[in-house]
Amino acid sequence: MSQTATEPVAQDLGSLSAVLAEIDRIVLGKQHEVRLALACLLAGGHLLIEDIPGVGKTTLAHALAQSLGLDFNRVQGTSDLLPADIVGVSVFDRGDSSFRFHPGPVFSQLLLVDELNRAPPKTQSALLEAMAEGQVSIDGVRRELPSPFFVIATQNPLDLVGTYPLPESQLDRFMFSLHLGYPDAEAERQLLAGNYDPLRLADARAVLTAAGLAAEIARTREVPARPALIAYIQALLQASRQHPQVRLGLSPRAGLAVLAAARAWARLAGRDHVTPQDVQAVFVPLARHRLHPRVDAPVDGHGLALQLLDDTAIP
Amino acid sequence: MSAAGKVDIATGRRLDGGQFSLCCLTVLAALLPHGSWLPLPFLILLLVLIGLRWLQRWRWPRVWPWWFRNGLMVALLVAAWTSIGTISGTQGAGFLAAMLVSKLYEAERARDARSVATFASFLVMAQFLFHTQLWAMLAGVPGLVLALATLAALNEPLSASLRAWRRPIATASRLLLLATPIALIAFALFPRLESPLWGNTGAFSRGQLGLSDRMEPGQIGAIALDDRPAMRVRFPDGAPPPPALRYFRGLTLWQTDGRSWTRPGWMQTRLDDLPPVPDYGIRHEITLERDAAPWLPALDRPLAAPAGLAFAMDRSLPIPRQTGNNLRYEVVSDPTLTLEPFQLRPYLRSLALNLPEDRNPRSLALALQLRSQYPDDRQYAQRLLDLFREDFSYTLEPPPLGAHSVDEFLFDTQSGYCEHYASAYATLLRAAGIPARVALGFQGGYWNSVGEHLVVRRSDAHAWVELWIQGSGWLRADPTAAVAPDRIERGSASVAGLEAGLLGRPGSAWTWLRDRWDFMEMRWTDWIVNYQVADQSALLQRLLNRLSSLRWTLTPAGIVAGAVLGLLLWLGWRRYRSGAGADDPQARWYARFRAVLASVGVDSRPSEPALQLAARAGRHYPALAGELTALARDYQLARYGPADRPLPAGRTLARLWLHLNRERLRRRRQTPD
To answer: Residue B166 pLDDT more than 80?
Structure first.
């Protein structure tokens, strides 16, 4: 519903607008989704992209990493992926007769996990600690992850054979669950006409540095939200818990995530305050994977989120 | 985001099947009460056209070209003209019905449905030109409910199932119920004209509704089967008089051409006031149906009228000019009153003896022959009654009579109805030199024990004779009583098996029901139909003490206008504030913003963000998009912005309302369809 909201981008976006422009150059016709993905990172959240193969999931993750100037690692989820393949392993070094730690791909600022649901549960939960705590424990030693640390995971919702669906606790760690969907006609024509080139991804500029991104994240946290807006978010949470077709409503952590994401969205819109429209813009990707419908409910999480938005009055 | 966004405000959507069917049903319901007077072929034509149109749109949907629609309308108007015969006065309602039916043939959009519903309500109202009884009001209710339901159903798609219609019909009924108290207040307080806008004489000139001031053979017989009430009589002081005394005298007929009896026009020119209440006599209160008689019947013989009535030279009571259709009156009568006992004025005497010389020769000869045997007036009159009793019979369907109608009746057919007897009797009396006149009125009546009143039906119309005898004055003589005493003792229903058919046996469920219905109908007539200026002033006087007559007109108007205005203001204020359980000014401001937009057709849900609503409204009113967005942005800043920003002023909303309405008007002018 909010995709149609028209709001001009204000001027003081600064480097963020450059980031958006850069990504839009690479991912064609997905301005809204790109914006949502960036908002997710600005709010310090992890991103889950659910869609069929070939619509640009990985490209988006790459483009984000490069344009934000983050160092970037990629893991392909398979059924024999072990936790050590992600967090790293201590190998005995004959030279100095001690174990030397070889950090895994998780030790990067942006980790892309492709087809996360193909990884076995043990591996999934190893990732969970990393996402939640920003640290990993290996051989009883806690090791801090770099900051900022983001996980972008993708999964294919259709091909479920040989997969391990993510448990609810794991899903809750992802701030957004994005659907990319097919590009629109115009974007697809451009794509076919050769305006897309894999090489472009390689020469994507780093518009921002990691430090600059950290500063942006800090600024985003300071966007003020007035009591009326807090009341709106609370009303949405309350409504999700009382909805007759919802088995499990939104947690307080989800509420915090809504506020953080709405701040980021407001920031991306160049506004210095959060409005209900921001909340509505981020609510669906944020609540979609967290709302669990009853078995007999006629709609999925996406539909439930839309219903909640439609039914909850803005105070 | 919601269904409201799809409403096309400028032109209105195409009607779906359910809405169209509801339209057809509305027209049908509005038309049916008119079935009581519309010529049957014309009515059937209209019904068939409605059915055809319904079927056509259902099966073969198409938009009829303009020439077809116009042709159909002209053809229908011609049909109305030829079958009804006139378009003047109340009969114009037939044209109305024809136009409404032809309107169905161009009903395709919501706008058409709106005019059909309005038009149908008007047609419902038009039927009160013909009938004012309780059943007429009840018969109007379905049409009104359906018209309202049609309007209600235009707001959202409607499937063509009766189940789906429950909702709009329920809405309409609720609205009607809600409106009833307002209607009652308006009814009681709205200023009335002293006399009605149209006279009530038109109904009598057609001679088909009740008695007229003229009597011809077969005329009363024609209404003998008319079971409708003509009047209701209450006797506040006690029981009604015995059946044999229940003569409700209307007027007297003096002139005859041998066949019909009429009354000279000047009889009514000199009126004397009836004196106020005497201390004896039978007091009774009569409520006359408006179209039952062109004068006021009263129990024979009227003596006094407490509320003031004038009587004409023959002591009949004309309808006072100023009272309009106020046909409730109180009379005190004394059956033993003698009229002009000692001397009949010469010109009256000659008038009461006058007979056409070239008519009814055999009757004249018979009169002379009998007169020679009975020189005494009383004996002669009595002999005539005996004559009737011996050889004559009473029937509702007498054979038709020619120019010498009295001759034919006396010597050939020898069977007839009260008017035949009255006419023959008066002729024979006059031929023998005894002044005589025919009296028209009602006789009998049915005692309703529920309402404790006497119901006199149109079929109780009766004619009898008054003859003048020196020393006794005018005496009442009823030749019909000689032939068929039952007719007088038990009323018209005793004749010819009518009792079982029309009236039912006493004590049966039918009688029980009829008594109650009749009682309700009397109350209806008393309180609603006959509610007049006088009643209104009495009511107001009780309410407001004494007021000058000027204020009597102005005050009720002011009260009604004030009440309506207050109600509208209150409703508007409630709508203005609605949604705002709002105690903080920002939420209240936004509720008003939404109310302003809703008033021009842009509905919104409480879950819609302000800017989004403004953008949507801006698409409906592009000329005002900038103003709308600016207002919404200011509101958003005030409510959610970082610092405390002031709200847009209240008058900006008023200005917005003005601009929106101006825009809407401008657009409506541009798109006539």
So the answer is: yes
B376 noted as active-site residue: no
Query: Which residue in B1, B583, B640, B645 has the most chain A C-beta atoms within 10 A of its own C-beta, making it the best mutation to test that interface?
Result: B640
| B659 vs B395, higher pLDDT | B659
Active site residue B412: no
Q: What one-letter code names the amino acid at B86?
A: T
Q: What's the Cα-to-Cα distance from B259 to each of B252, B310, B400, rounded to whole Å?
A: 16, 31, 12
Q: Which residues make up the CATH 3.40.50.300 domain(s) of chain A? A: 2-79+106-220
**Band of residue B673 on the pLDDT scale cut at 50, 70, 90:** very low
Residue A210, CA atoms < 13 Å, CB-side half-sphere? 11
Binary contact (A310, B605; C-beta < 8 A) = yes
Rounded to whole angstroms, the Cα distance separating A164 from A162 reads 7
Residues 6+ apart with CB under 8 A from B340: B468, B473, B474
Nearest to B1 among A272, A276, A310 (CB): A310
Q: In chain B, what are the domain boundaries? A: 3-178, 204-497+507-515, 533-575, 578-670
Out of B112, B291, B478, B634, the active site residue is B478
Q: Tell me: the pLDDT tens digits for A53-62?
A: 888 888 888 8
Please give the structure tokens belonging to residue B231. 């009047």
A310 and B607 within 8 Å at the Cβ level: the answer is: yes
Q: Quick one: CATH architecture of A2-79+106-220?
A: 3-Layer(aba) Sandwich (3.40)
The mean predicted confidence, pLDDT, of chain B is 79
Q: What's the number of CA atoms in the CB half-sphere (13 Å) around residue A232?
A: 29
User: Which of A3, A12, A226 would best serve as a mutation to test chain B binding (most B beta carbons within 10 A)?
Assistant: A226
The tens digit of pLDDT for each residue in B35-88 reads: 888 888 899 999 999 999 999 988 888 888 889 989 999 999 888 888 887 666
Q: What CATH topology corresponds to A223-315?
A: Helicase, Ruva Protein; domain 3 (1.10.8)
Answer whether A183 touches B (CB < 8 Å).
Answer: no
How far apart, in whole angstroms, are the C-alpha atoms of residue B171 and residue B375? 80
